[in-house]
């Protein structure tokens, strides 16, 4: 099974290289999807024969075990070993990563084929006006639809309740001609204006970068060596930066990518400092050994936890360190947002729960009130901001700040119920928010706008899409019976259980959940209900390929919501 | 009179390098071959000696002046190897060039084995002296570079010598092994002054602040192969000298730690701020090299505290390891730049065009604004919007259209973008490396140099997949995390700033339309790339020989 561990991380990496080598072949996307599928299979097989790793005993008490472990010496002077291990906690996240990797690759492959077919059709018709500039598909460049939309706020201001608050659709983030577009392309604006963008969007290189992110993230979840953890954590950065920078929304991508890179590196270097203090203090970089040892010494515990928590709080993100997130999520292409929400944010919470909490349990207990207060504040701020956001993708992105606030609050509560709620909420968010991003991406691709003011009547124009959006929004706001419920409910429970000032934090979190319901229902009202907006008129409903990509996420959301028991059992035998 | 036995095997690499220098002087048209063969043989001999038992010679009692242990021989092999790489990317040069290069490498090998202050200072001078001639190209710019280097170097040598003299006065010995005991009950002020002067003087070679200002100017004006040597082998010399002095001689001195801390923080601050505003490739690498000198010196700062002085061995090892990874990356970057540079490095060739304006900005430090007086530069500074259009018109006739530059160009309103259209207008013939924008699309035009350069740049930023840089950072942070957490945070902050100039450089290489680029020195670049790949996959190769405490 050690081989499976290595394959889980190596297959996406090999797939990335293969896709990059064969990027000019038409089947390159499918090679990527195949590699991701094989990696998923490898991860899915990990529970087979679990318990073959050494059971770990602390104080004569069985505390849990790695299922499997494999270790190869690399650079002993740096305490670096290529050491992988898996247990219930890391397996679920690795599985989520692999699943999202497959879905993103398939999404890309299907999208590319569809684009090729569309272009072929357009060529046959040979009518320039019909040929939608390719760039506008993802990016909302100049397009006839966007121009039509522009008329809405002028006469719709009185009709729409909060019309005065609306940004003019088209100018916000996505729409309107990219101001620098004309000089940049140096071509007279016309059908060819956005062509390079379109070519880029369906480029197999995007698939290769996705696989690179997947490989590095899987390595973060599976590694047992703190130095390798740091290296893998850093390795996520460059491919993700390239995804945002190269394939993102042209208006915002450069700033967003730079912000993402600088925030992330600052966080990961602070984290590295904390990790190395822990390594110097304990004399080993073996995560399992340090966990059993009870973490670092008392005098260093708070310092280590503070540095690690700062680093992970940037990635998670926790409230005052979150400002890179809305920009990055909004600017990234759909698959980029999916991976950001589904995988990259999990790196932060996983690190916080297992590494920071495990290396410095005493420091975690000391710092818990601060962490909890920030988390509760983050939940409230995210809820209030989301109530006013005029753009669907940005709204979903900002809602992540709130959801991650729940996870951090549950972890800060420190009780067993709290930690499990944190892990559960983490995983649920990793299923629901990617689904929301996929849906928002599909909606934007069809309507060429993400502005809530320009959308409406989706339930009439595309009932299946509207239904899925409703389902995902309900799951996100924590409807009982869907995945989002358990994590948030138990977070409030765990915080309230501690009594005292924590009751206030629990109340704040509960109010935050109420705000989440308010903003998500507001979004549904704007997008799905009301009269059919011009932008929505005549769009296609969910295609079979899209349904196939989204189905696993829907199924997972239902499964976690209806049968949370097995997952909680997995967490309980995890090594924490 | 008893004559001391000399261990000639320990000196073999030095003999070979010196022989290569003499042969190059006499060999006429075969000078290049003779120098490269001799230096390669010296590298091989150093590896052979290093793999064998530790040797030492020129003893006074227990103290040796010349040592051939793993650290010394590994460093010596690296000196010789880097000199071979520089020779390989030098093209055709006159015979003296090869002599000077080999002589300098011999100085480096002597430095690697030096374990007393006199040998050390003489070795550093041998390493530096030939460079006075090599950096000076004909013409005003070249003369300025040569003069600057000469003055800065002489100042630094005098500083280091003064420090060495004070330490000799305080301790009564020049042997590094004897310094520790000799300084134990010496006058504290005298010791501290000696330590500070000696380390600051030696740090000149490493281009650490405050003796850093020669680096950007000289590196940019010198011929690129010589700049490659200055940025790699010469800096390795500085790092090795500081490491030997601190670890073997001053491991018990708090003043050494304090000096290292001051030099390190100043270098990180100045180097990063300077690099942020550069628009030309070589000055960018030169300024960031100053920051890297700061990262390399940082581990030695742990000596400032009593707890840290127990960590002297790991700290010195981390400094040397960082320096080795760093010079390999720098050598890769500069070698790749040399390969793609438009005109050949004809060191003793005709005079290039005279300087268009008085004192270009890199000389003064911050802000490498194009020399005032050129019309295009004025326009670029004043009106970005108009400039884009005129730039587009003008350059549409050029090979490199502004489209490529603009699409790839930095954050909105950035320098890159504003100047992209003028790429064809402002090129001056004496601009080694040229502007960053000129590298646009290199990935498509010349994949091999671009790959090496990209690996080096990402490695300098410390990011995977160029793991050499990551390991270097890990080595430094591991030492700092145990004894000087505040400095670890400074190093981390510096690395974050570093990302702000390395990432745009990497992006320029990857995006944009390709222009024709020369394809030269493929073998040298492949070897440099393989070396980088080797230390990325097997860092223990470097970490083994750089662990001085064994």
TrEMBL record, chain A:
Region (Disordered): 132-178
Organism this protein belongs to: Glycomyces sambucus
Pfam family, one: Proton_antipo_M
Superkingdom of the source species: Bacteria
Localisation per UniProt entry: Endomembrane system; Membrane
Single GO BP term: ATP synthesis coupled electron transport
Boundaries of every NADH:quinone oxidoreductase/Mrp antiporter transmembrane domain copy: 224-506
Protein name: Proton-translocating NADH-quinone oxidoreductase, chain M
Membrane-spanning ranges: 28-48, 205-222, 228-248, 260-280, 300-318, 330-347, 367-388, 395-415, 421-443, 464-487, 499-521
Similarity comment: Belongs to the complex I subunit 4 family.
Membrane topology reported for the UniProt record: Multi-pass membrane protein
Record keywords, A-Z: Membrane, Transmembrane, Transmembrane helix
Primary residence: membrane
Segments of skewed composition (Low complexity): 154-164
MF term (GO), any: NADH dehydrogenase (ubiquinone) activity
One GO cellular component term: membrane
UniProtKB/TrEMBL annotation, chain B:
Annotated ranges, domain NADH:quinone oxidoreductase/Mrp antiporter transmembrane: 114-340, 435-493
Main location: membrane
GO CC annotations, alphabetized: endomembrane system; membrane
TM regions (residue ranges): 6-26, 33-51, 71-90, 97-114, 120-136, 148-170, 190-208, 229-250, 256-277, 284-307, 319-340, 445-464, 484-510, 522-543
UniProt keywords, alphabetically: Membrane, Transmembrane, Transmembrane helix, Ubiquinone
Residue numbers spanned by region Disordered: 348-432
Domain of life: Bacteria
Cross-referenced Pfam families: Proton_antipo_M (PF00361)
Subcellular location: Endomembrane system; Membrane
Residue ranges, compositional bias (Low complexity): 362-384
Keyword match Transmembrane: yes
Keyword tRNA processing annotated: no
Membrane topology: Multi-pass membrane protein
PANTHER family: NADH DEHYDROGENASE
Protein name stated in the entry: NADH:ubiquinone oxidoreductase subunit 2 (Chain N)
Lineage: Bacteria, Bacillati, Actinomycetota, Actinomycetes, Glycomycetales
């Amino acid at each position: 099974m050690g081989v499976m561990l290595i394959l889980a991380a190596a297959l996406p990496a090999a797939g990335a290289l293969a896709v990059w080598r064969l990027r000019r072949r038409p089947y390159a996307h499918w090679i990527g999807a195949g590699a991701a599928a094989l990696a998923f299979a490898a991860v899915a097989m990990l529970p087979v024969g679990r318990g073959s790793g050494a059971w770990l005993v602390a104080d004569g008490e069985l505390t849990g075990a790695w299922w499997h472990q494999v270790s190869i010496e690399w650079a002993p002077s740096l305490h670096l070993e290529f050491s992988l291990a898996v247990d219930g906690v890391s397996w679920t996240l690795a599985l989520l990563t692999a699943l999202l990797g497959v879905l993103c690759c398939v999404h890309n492959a299907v999208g590319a084929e569809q684009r090729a077919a569309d272009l072929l059709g357009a060529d046959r018709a040979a009518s320039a006006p019909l040929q939608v500039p390719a760039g506008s598909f993802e990016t909302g460049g100049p397009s006839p639809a966007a121009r039509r939309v522009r008329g809405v706020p002028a006469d719709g201001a009185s009709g729409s309740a909060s019309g005065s608050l609306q940004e003019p659709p088209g100018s916000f983030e996505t729409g309107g001609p990219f101001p620098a577009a004309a000089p940049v392309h140096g071509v007279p604006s016309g059908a060819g204006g956005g062509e390079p963008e379109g070519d880029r969007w369906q480029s197999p290189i995007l698939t290769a970068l996705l696989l690179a992110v997947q490989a590095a993230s899987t390595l973060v979840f599976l590694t047992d060596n703190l130095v390798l953890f740091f290296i893998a954590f850093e390795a996520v950065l460059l491919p993700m930066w390239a995804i945002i920078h190269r394939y993102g929304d042209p208006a915002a991508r450069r700033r967003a990518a730079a912000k993402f890179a600088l925030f992330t590196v600052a966080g990961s270097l602070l984290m590295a400092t904390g990790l190395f203090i822990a390594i110097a203090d304990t004399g080993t970089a073996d995560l399992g050994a340090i966990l059993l040892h009870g973490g670092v010494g008392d005098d260093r515990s708070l310092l280590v936890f503070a540095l690690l928590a700062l680093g992970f709080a940037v990635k998670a993100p926790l409230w005052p360190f979150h400002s890179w997130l809305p920009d990055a999520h909004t600017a990234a292409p759909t698959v980029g947002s999916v991976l950001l929400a589904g995988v990259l944010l999990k790196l932060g919470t996983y690190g916080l729960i297992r590494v920071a909490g495990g290396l410095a349990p005493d420091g975690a207990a000391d710092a818990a009130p601060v962490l909890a207060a920030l988390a509760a504040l983050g939940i409230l701020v995210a809820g209030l901001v989301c109530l006013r956001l005029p753009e669907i993708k940005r709204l979903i992105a900002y809602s992540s700040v709130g959801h991650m606030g729940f996870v951090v609050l549950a972890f800060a509560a420190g009780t067993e119920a709290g930690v499990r709620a944190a892990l559960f909420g983490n995983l649920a968010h990793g299923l629901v928010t990617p689904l929301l991003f996929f849906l928002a991406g599909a909606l934007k691709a069809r309507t060429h706008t993400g502005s809530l003011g320009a959308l409406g009547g989706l339930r009439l124009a595309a009932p299946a899409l509207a239904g899925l959006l409703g389902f995902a929004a309900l799951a996100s706001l924590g409807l009982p019976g869907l995945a989002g419920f358990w994590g948030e409910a138990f977070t409030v429970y765990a915080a309230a259980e501690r009594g005292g000032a924590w009751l206030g934090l629990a109340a704040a979190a509960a109010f935050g959940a109420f705000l989440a319901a308010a903003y998500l229902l507001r979004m549904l009202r704007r997008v799905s209900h009301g009269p059919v907006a011009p932008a929505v008129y005549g769009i296609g409903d969910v295609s079979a390929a899209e349904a196939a990509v989204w189905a696993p996420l829907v199924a997972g959301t239902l499964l976690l919501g209806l049968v949370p028991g097995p997952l909680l059992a997995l967490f309980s035998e995890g090594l924490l | 009179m008893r004559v001391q036995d000399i261990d000639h095997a320990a000196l073999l690499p030095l003999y070979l390098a010196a022989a290569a220098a003499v042969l190059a002087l006499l060999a006429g048209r075969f000078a290049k071959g003779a120098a490269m063969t001799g230096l390669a043989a010296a590298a091989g001999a150093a590896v052979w000696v290093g793999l064998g038992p530790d040797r030492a010679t020129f003893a006074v009692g227990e103290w040796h002046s010349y040592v051939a242990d793993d650290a010394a021989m590994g460093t010596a092999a690296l000196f010789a190897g880097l000199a071979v790489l520089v020779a390989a990317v030098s093209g055709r040069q006159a015979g003296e060039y090869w002599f000077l290069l080999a002589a300098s490498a011999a100085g480096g090998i002597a430095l690697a084995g030096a374990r007393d202050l006199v040998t050390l200072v003489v070795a550093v001078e041998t390493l530096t002296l030939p460079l006075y001639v090599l950096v000076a190209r004909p013409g005003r710019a070249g003369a300025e570079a040569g003069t600057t280097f000469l003055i800065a170097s002489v100042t630094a040598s005098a500083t280091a010598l003064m420090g060495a003299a004070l330490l000799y006065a305080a301790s009564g010995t020049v042997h590094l092994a004897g310094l520790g005991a000799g300084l134990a009950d010496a006058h504290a002020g005298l010791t501290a002054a000696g330590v500070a002067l000696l380390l600051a003087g030696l740090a000149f070679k490493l281009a650490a602040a405050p003796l850093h200002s020669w680096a950007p100017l000289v590196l940019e004006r010198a011929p690129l192969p010589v700049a490659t040597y200055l940025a790699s082998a010469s800096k390795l010399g500085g790092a090795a000298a500081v490491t030997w002095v601190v670890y073997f001689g001053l491991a018990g001195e708090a003043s050494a730690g304090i000096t290292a801390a001051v030099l390190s923080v100043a270098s990180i601050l100045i180097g990063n701020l300077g690099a942020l505003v550069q628009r030309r490739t070589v000055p960018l690498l030169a300024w960031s090299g100053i920051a890297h000198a700061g990262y390399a010196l940082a581990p030695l700062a742990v000596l400032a505290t009593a707890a840290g002085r127990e960590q002297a061995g790991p700290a010195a090892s981390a400094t040397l390891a960082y320096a080795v990874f760093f010079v390999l990356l720098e050598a890769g970057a500069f070698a790749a730049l040399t390969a793609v540079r438009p005109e050949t490095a004809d060191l003793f060739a005709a005079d290039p065009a005279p300087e268009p304006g008085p004192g270009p900005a890199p000389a003064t430090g911050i802000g490498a604004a194009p020399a005032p007086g050129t019309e295009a530069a004025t326009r670029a500074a004043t009106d970005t919007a108009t400039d884009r259009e005129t730039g587009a018109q003008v350059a549409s006739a050029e090979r490199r259209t502004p489209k490529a530059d603009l699409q790839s160009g930095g954050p909105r309103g950035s320098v890159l973008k504003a100047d992209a259209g003028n790429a064809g207008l402002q090129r001056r013939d004496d601009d080694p490396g040229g502007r960053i924008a000129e590298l646009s699309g290199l990935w498509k035009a010349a994949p091999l140099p671009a790959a090496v350069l990209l690996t080096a740049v990402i490695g300098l930023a410390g990011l995977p997949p160029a793991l050499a840089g990551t390991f270097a950072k890990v080595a430094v942070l591991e030492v700092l995390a145990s004894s000087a957490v505040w400095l670890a945070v400074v190093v981390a902050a510096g690395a974050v700033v570093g990302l702000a100039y390395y990432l745009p450089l990497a992006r320029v290489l990857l995006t944009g339309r390709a222009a024709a680029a020369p394809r030269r020195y493929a073998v040298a670049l492949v070897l440099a790339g393989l070396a980088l790949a080797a230390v990325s996959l097997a860092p223990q190769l470097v970490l083994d020989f750089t662990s001085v405490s064994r």
